[in-house]
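Shipment paperwork, digital attachment
Item: protein structure file
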Amino acid sequence: MHRRTMMAGLTACLAVTGFLAGSALLAARADAGERSWNRTGTVTGPRGGTATWQRSGSCDGGTCARSGTVTGPAGKTVTRDATVTRDANGWQRDVTATGPNGGTWTREGQGSCSGGSCTFGGTVTGPRGNTGTYSGASGPSQ
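Attachment content:
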């Protein structure tokens, strides 16, 4: 596997992992009142290539917002902005990410929890306008 391909995959994996963890945090914190945070870090791959990341976010009045960047070892950057709004019926999540070549994808979705189980779903639109759907569930019986 080429070094660039491997580091791009590592960067994408880190971005997705961070997104998933951050989405859960945003949904849980959306009604926690005014809060803000900033985080930065670096990760070094098995061949010494380094990627850096930066995240910031805030929550207020049932809505959390998050922004971040990941810059890979070749200097290419991916940015991502997300909001999660929580109400009595569940949550709504909107994400926009822009790749190093200017391509943008969006993810819009909603979810709800009841009795210890959660369901979620939505749509993803890629940089060429192609769309797809996703759905899932989590909880003790899943």
